[in-house]
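Progress report, Aim 2. The chain analyzed during this reporting quarter is listed below.
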Amino acid sequence: MPKITINDIEVEVAAGLTVLQACEAVGIEIPRFCYHERLSISGNCRMCLVEMEPSPRPVASCALPVIDDMVIHTNSPMVEKARKSALEFLLINHPLDCPICDQGGECDLQDITMAYGADQSRFQENKRAVREKDFGPLVGSAMTRCIHCTRCVRFSTEVAGVEEMGATGRGENTEVGTYLQMALSSEMSGNMIDLCPVGALTSKPYAFSARSWELRHTETIDALDAVGSNIQVDSRGNEVMRVLPRINEDINEEWISDKTRFSYDGLKRQRLDRPYVRKDGRLLEASWEEAFAAIAARIGAIKGAKSQKIATIAGDLACCESIQALKDIMDAFKSPHMDCRQDGAMLDPAARAGYLFNTSISGIEHADLCLLIGTNPRIEAPLINTRLRKRFLMGGFSVALVGAKADLTYSYEYLGSGPRTLGQILSRSHMFAKLMDAAQRPMLILGQGALARPDGSVVLTTARNLATRFGMVDHGWNGFNVLHGAAARVGALDLGFVPGKNGRDVAGILNGAASGKIEVVYLLGADEIDTASLGSAFVIYQGHHGDAGASAADVVLPGAAYTEKNATYVNTEGRVQQTNLAVHPPGQARTDWMILRALSQALGQKAGYDSLEQLRAHMIRTNAVFAEVDVAAADRTAKTEWTTFGASGDMNESPFGSAVENFYMTDPISRASETMARCTDTFRVPHFSVTGTNG
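Predicted structure tokens for the chain:
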């Protein structure tokens, strides 16, 4: 480890650091615009200048590697003068529009100008003006403010993998934008807004709506996919104004997808804010007492064994607390008909290792080969796709795909479309088997597109056999991974929200409802099912949006969205995480587990808990995984056991599909979002069909 002197203090720093990183490591802040720790070094802005003995001129600390016996000064008169001069150059053409800039209060240029700026400029020339550019429905631009740091260019190239941003011209005439004046089509484009150190790139949906100091900041978890990105919800009053990422190195680093960032306007539209009861074919407003009475009367009218005539389906956004509370009601009626797999995915709930992303999201960086089966991670889980691209850029990482061809952001080898290819790899008759044999830490990612089919359980078994045969589960490494798209799925499986003995799955419940064998169906936010198959069954819908499930319901109970409750979710890697209430549910809507507790009392099956703490203790008794919060399955005290799962049989020859067709509309919240609707109109056209590295 090299020893250097910084401001007359000798320190020892890690090898391979730059001077800027070394200074940061010992607590000395260096101003910067172009440097970012997750991007390549460009050295554009020159704000990070330091004095290095015996150099007669200041040097850029972001691009200077640390060597032994280096003497650095960060606060000398030379450094002070150099930084003031660099800032003066950057401000030559920068407009004085801070009062109307959305970056105000969060602007690096503002902050650094307070430290190094002058009260007047020596330059009298006219300021440069740049024509505004249209980057699509998400990212707004005021490119006259651009200081050419190129953070956005490097992000789109290096992280997002969609090389749309670039710079044209030279010197003062340099302009940053898309070469062909196209909209930014990356699913990660919104992160450029966070990276921009000035107000050149801003959020178009958020524009001119609020100031940062007006907002209340709530640290919480995203529930629009199964990654569980750590986010900050900024609200004013009882309205969500924006969503920003929080740093979590194990999950999302400091990025979030565009759906996570921009679909918040869907929280304000098509909301269920009061109970409804269907009378004479119409849903009419009702009180909570009337709604509960209607449910109790219908269940009480069931003739014969109630246990065989009541069923429930949990949706993709349901929290673990509500799933546990609903399961308790079903258990009280001794009904085995419950399921959380709306898409019909043939997951085996008996073996936790069989439905988790066992490698963990951060563990992707340690793999040396990846086999994608029936998945398109770019639209199913952009953060996992970004992590795969990060590993690909490190080198020594082979990627192959079995399933529908996909426009990914890294090169891959296309092996085939379906089960036949899997069988060939398993028998080692396929050439790719040699690469898998040679890999030290191979992994596979099994998507819902390969599981949501009649032979999905056999595909699951085949994938398990692949993992076993090619050494994916060995010596502390587990390369078997299931990629979920639903935030509720893993938690529901952990709680055992699956058919009991002789119980019906989702398909069986719908068939039973259509035939009259199932008389009451409880939909806990279940909107991704064929509601036309519910037949004449009495349907109870509990959720937060007037989507497909609510339209088919006889009783509607208004619940809370993920930003409106303290709730538990388990992400695709088996990490238990908890949301925090940012805003209150609208109108008469209530937290979901409280609704179910009140309903259980109305049904004469009073729940054994009266508080959130008691309910969570009950969940821990159901499954001990809920005792450890924010710990991935791979890092848990009790390791997930690798056991047999799936089913034997033959796979049909139909190709694997993708679980997601439209990235921007996958759930009731995003479908209600006007911003996501504009994205769908903009990007769901052939012109934008191929944008990735492999396209």
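The first strand starts at residue 3 and ends at 6. Residues 276-348+489-635 form a domain with the Rossmann fold fold (CATH 3.40.50.740). These observations will guide the mutagenesis work planned for the next reporting period.
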